[in-house]
Amino acid sequence: MIGERRILLEPREVPLGGVRGMNVLRVLPHRNLPTIGAWCFLDRFGPADTRMRVEPHPHIGLQTVTWPLVGEIRHRDSLGSDADLRRGQLNLMTAGNGISHSEYSIGDDPIPLDALQFWVALPEGARQGAGGFERHTDLPAVTLAADEGADATATVVLGEFAGTVSPATVHTPIVGAEIVIPAGTRVRLPLRTDWEHAIMLVEGDASVSTHEMTQNDMLYLGDSRDAVEVTSAQGALLFLIGGEPFDDEIVMWWNFAGRTHDEIAEARTEWEAASARFGVVEGHDVRIPAPPLPDVRLMPRGRRI
């Protein structure tokens, strides 16, 4: 068991550069905490008026979870998927042994855009399997009875929360849920004691386990809790992630999640050689080249929390 924790994970600004041409706030991976459950990556891009053009790029060993807050995003991938995505909908892409995709904002002009982009590490078996894509437009919601004020509501994006299960495919015990806290509300969010959890403040104001949150901060709660108390004066939008601690150590580099340096190097070589492993995203003349590998062997990031 990890035990109860109350550790603030502050985001850092990361320039994506190149053809992506935008900055993001990165919360995961954290230098002391590579995973929370199987969640291994979290970026927030926006809010901004921007023309998003993320050309085809590869993934291995993970699922991408795209959760838009403002604006519309077009997803195309090497499986032939072509789907627009907007607020309240989920795009879930499973990379397996190899997939490539692109993400564009809708239209040719800059538009208001804000979204959360997560990666979920895949366990053995699933990470060597075939890729897949799912679009979910009707996700389940659950009402959370308030101790004070109006009741809160949660949309179960991935996995299971408060006895409600998302239809999206998962490969480990996990939770991802967007939670809306009305102004003047105090409410207890139910948690599983054998899972670790963390909560991000997306919008508004909130106190989580008596800790006053700042927008875009994530509070790591550890495990061994059956609930956590949240209060908000003006109203808040939160995102809860967690799950069974992910036992495998992963090597993350660029868009890849593997287990060894050699796996990552092989995937990079195959992407640069336009291998059939990653397929082709139709409708694009340009794709993102892989950066050079570092001069040292890639090693797993150890947990220090």
TrEMBL record:
Pfam families: Pirin, Pirin_C. PANTHER family: PIRIN, PIRIN-RELATED. Residues 178-274 form the Pirin C-terminal domain. Belongs to the pirin family. Signal peptide: none annotated. The lineage of its organism: Bacteria, Bacillati, Actinomycetota, Actinomycetes, Micrococcales. SUPFAM superfamilies: RmlC-like cupins. This is Redox-sensitive bicupin YhaK (Pirin superfamily). Residues 24-120 form the Pirin N-terminal domain.
